[in-house]
Design a protein that fits this description.
The protein contains eight helices and 15 strands. It is globular, with a radius of gyration of 19 Å. Strands 7, 8, 9, 10, 11, 12, 13, 14 and 15 form a nine-stranded mixed sheet that branches. It has a six-stranded antiparallel sheet with strand order 2-1-6-5-3-4. It has 284 residues and is α+β, with helices and mostly antiparallel strands. The structure holds N-(5'-phosphopyridoxyl)-D-alanine. N-(5'-phosphopyridoxyl)-D-alanine binds next to helix 6.
Length: 284
């Protein structure tokens, strides 16, 4: 495997980090997971923009355009002959003696490498069960931070319960997102999802889905909704880069609607096959 480290290409065995890298010690960095279909990135531009946003929000000075990230990522795909899969990319604040404040002279550490992505085909067909968990994470979920303990602990709970995902809620009137997905509800033909604010990650897949919904005349409401609303939905689904869309047919012990993936969900899922070479969304 060839790995991109800052602007150089190295072998996997050379891709090591320093024990004082702040990504390792503090989770002081940000990341992206980018999907690759047929040897091409899906929505690469949107991922680069969101990465730049995350970097800016945590005060890491790293200009992705100036650093030629786009070209490096394309070269990385070619070097690894990735056809179907993804790229994991992270940027940490860099190496410095351990102290909480930002160091003045650290150079950011960027790593990117190909990952295997298994499309959840069976789950997309049948739909899945999810659990509900209180959202105990921090209040800057809009930053795609390396700090994923809240997400990791919660996904583990889902796994132990035999569920595909855990859906977070801040209180019973406020459902936020999944532990690694955004959450959508269809009710009376309208598609609902949480607004893009500090309580959720503004998923690239989320934005793609809102775009497709608009194009296919599905009314959209970006609004906060309650646990009751979720339970009474006609359709529920979760979405992410790696999962695309996965219908939710059961929430804990309660079956949603008729217990089968709904029509709007299925239509949106089918759209992925058509748009695999899309580089960017029209509105950002
Ligand atoms: N997770 N919300 C959270 C908390 C996420 O971790 C993710 C993605 C999403 C969906 O974002 P996107 O559509 O841009 O993938 C929403 C990635 C895939 C991960 O950590 O593996």
């Amino acid at each position: 495997m060839i790995v991109l480290k800052n602007n150089t290409f190295i072998e996997r065995k050379e891709a090591t980090i320093d024990m004082e890298d702040r990504g390792f010690q503090f989770g002081d960095g940000v990341y992206e997971v980018i999907r690759v279909y047929n040897g091409e990135y899906f929505l690469l531009e949107d991922h680069i923009k969101r990465l730049q946003y995350s970097l800016n929000e945590i005060g890491i000075t790293y200009d992705l355009e100036e650093n030629g990230l786009r070209d490096d990522l394309i070269e990385l795909l070619e070097a690894n002959e990735v056809e179907d899969g993804g790229i994991y990319l992270q940027v940490s604040r860099g190496i410095a003696p351990r102290a909480h404040p930002y160091p003045s002279d650290a150079q950011p550490t960027l790593f990117a490498y190909p990952i295997h992505v298994v499309k959840p085909v069976a789950e997309q067909g049948t739909g899945v069960q999810v659990i509900l968990e209180e959202d105990f994470r921090w209040l800057r979920c809009d930053i795609k931070s390396l700090n994923l303990l809240g997400n990791v602990m919660t996904k583990q709970k889902a796994k132990e319960n035999g569920a595909f995902e855990a859906i977070f809620y801040r209180n019973e009137d406020h459902v936020t997102e999944g532990s690694s997905t955004n959450v959508f509800v269809v009710k009376d033909g309208t598609l609902y999802t949480h607004p893009a604010d500090n309580y959720i990650l503004n998923g690239i897949t989320r934005r793609y889905i809102l775009h497709v919904a608009e194009e296919t005349n599905v009314p959209v409401e970006e609004t906060v909704f309650s646990l009751d609303f979720l339970h009474e939905a006609d359709e529920v689904f979760v979405a992410s880069t790696t999962a695309e869309i996965v219908p939710v047919v059961q929430i804990e012990n309660e079956v949603i609607a008729n217990g089968k993936p709904g029509d709007v969900t299925k239509q949106l899922l089918q759209s992925f096959a058509k748009h695999q070479s899309l580089e960017t969304l029209p509105v950002n």
